[in-house]
Amino acid sequence: MAHTTRTVLKARKDKEKVLDEVWDDARIKSFLYKTAPRQSGVTLPGDADFFVLRHAYQAMRADDFGRFLDYFAGEGRDVHARNGDGETLAQYIAPHAKAGPFIELLNAH
Model pTM? Predict the structure, then answer.
């Protein structure tokens, strides 16, 4: 019988989790100025607005994301922007377990 050993590494806690953090309008609006990520000096393929939306989705709760979308659309930005694979944010996040409220907000715009 073979004997195997496993090493389990525990990550250090480098920052505390903040619950129920208040997002004011200035903080939400600051996400409007995010830029498309770059890899090896080249901007990733896809619409720049897709990456702004994705970043906001990853950082915000649904209520805050809804407020963000109002500002985003108010500036004439494209809520249906696509990534390099041709997916909108709603399509991209569809497999995520908690994406439902975000997809509803995107579809409402």
Answer: 0.76
